[in-house]
């Protein structure tokens, strides 16, 4: 804090202090967001499919090989189907809600299912940036950008479903911004 | 006389005693369940056998302490610019501290050290939160000399690096500017942390109970006797008596905890930092650097307000970026004036409350629904259908409802967010009213959140992430929240000021 005060003294000659008109500040809530790549929905579907196939195999094995469970066959199958449908439904909402925007000074990420959460990280608070490629995502040429701050897990953001090239560009851009800060 | 620290030295011979008590403390901490069981069984065991075991134990500890004393050596290695400490009886360890990394050397005294007449010397380095080097028993002149040697070197290194602000004289012992009196600690002890102490008591009884039960299974100990004893005593003694007993136990434990932990709390100013030292059995010392402070909490309840005391809690960001360790430092029992002095040192001025944001009434309704309506409905459904014997406790439900209703009502009334140019202050709590203070520049990221059915009411959630934890405000005016988010982002993004 002391150092910040000192630096503002040294810049006294070009220091102005006009009243900020709060109404005319750029509004984060009016930013146009970019949706995730459509192929990312396929990635989500494939991931769920793998998960449910394994779950269905286990469930089927239990229902048809263990006699004690024979009475639950119908109920368990209906419950299973219901879970599949609900998972896909909520994933779809989650997928459609997820969106990101890179402004000149900060990055915004929107996500959530019943809530709409918007995380904003100013570039001068970014600690480091990572690029992550999942097995399925790589097949579709997609990558995930992870942005970390010093604010702990809850403030880090992961933007999935970005085309590999674009993701590389964004990473370069962010790295450049961080370098400039230092 | 110039003392040379280049040869390995031992501590003061009297330090064996410090080692002795230190070892006892460590062992007692590990062995207390066994001790409790012994006390329970005191009448049944052979007295001479018991005394022999105790004496033997003390002898072993004494030998151990002597060996610890013999094996503890420290010296300055000028060639490698290091301060070296060798220690350990079975596991030898060697700690080396780079001289130019030394930030602070603290000389302090615990109660035992005061009785014996020795001091301890801590070496604090940049980057690590834990103690790097600690000498437990050293005479005062020697401690001062060693401190001068350690810091002198730092000064030399700093001068070579041509850092002008480090050219100040190495200050001798700084007089504390705030000293928390024993009376203040007593006040804090009887007015705070009731719930934590209750938890400690319950944990204590649970452990004792488990140990006694274990013992009962393996010995001739008559378990049914205890059970009947407890049943009888519960029947005989009224519940009010039990509650009174529990309350006084809570108070006593609180008092002991606060005094042992915070005895002789001193705060000194040094080069713009705060130097804290406290503790009865072992003295802890820490530094607070204002630029590293992230979240400052001032809390106080009704009793404490009447007694003019409050508690301060300060969360710093760790200097090490790899391990994001959040360390909270507590300053108990300062008065209004001392609090203002500390805040002035941390922020340059006393934070003022600005524009007030209130939560929507739905916050109150929702918390009442969640903690009163849902559990009580569940209770009555289960009570009427499954277990009628549960219904004999039905007379407790209005008590429960009134208690939680009051907690939520006051919690809601105190739930406020104050915003001005320099500070964001969140006020919360039903009984202990806390003010969490952060500076907008310490914000790392901001999350706003809104449930879709809150859209028409224009209310939502705000979370400010800092390196010392999050500050959340629920169900406030969403338009106002968004306007402030834009303002904070503007401030953060247009200034190059550092958050640490």
Automatic annotation (TrEMBL), chain B:
Residues 74-147, 272-344, 413-470 form the YdbS-like PH domain. The keyword Cell inner membrane does not apply. Keywords: Membrane, Transmembrane, Transmembrane helix. The keyword Transmembrane helix applies. The chain crosses the membrane at residues 48-67, 239-260, 364-387, 393-412. This is YdbS-like PH domain-containing protein. It comes from Flavobacterium humi.
